[in-house]
Design a protein that fits this description.
mainly alpha, 8 helices, 157 residues, single chain, 69% helix
Length: 157
Amino acid sequence: MLNLILLLIGLLILHGCDISSSPEKLFSKANVERSQSNFKKAAKILRNLVNSDADEEILVRSNLLLAEIFYHDLKDFNQAIQEYDNFCKAFPDHKNAASSLFMQGFIYHNSLSDLQMAEKLYLKFLDEYPDHELALSVRWELDNLGKNIDEMPFFKN
């Protein structure tokens, strides 16, 4: 009987140590799915990671990749904005919070043509990150809200 109990405990320990479902392995699997154009499957894996108790590094990487997939791959711009916003709320002091805020304004401006929301977020960016390396880009975006890029002298020819 004692041997059976020890065997069961050993099996439980081994099952709990299964690295095939570790956050790192799941993140890698999401990247593989993305590289194979299985964007929704990758997003589902990342969503599970984002909602898990994984360490902060995996949560950060999962959040950002999830937003990137919605923006670049799925072209679901509203969901991409939501994911970037979720990142800013979850990690307000992270070095990528500023670029996530920038991306929200950028998507509103350049993908959704919602100039009012773009301006609001760009101004918020300048208020929160006036010296950030993207501040110059934000100012340029604000100066050119609503302008057709093909009509700008810099981009002609």
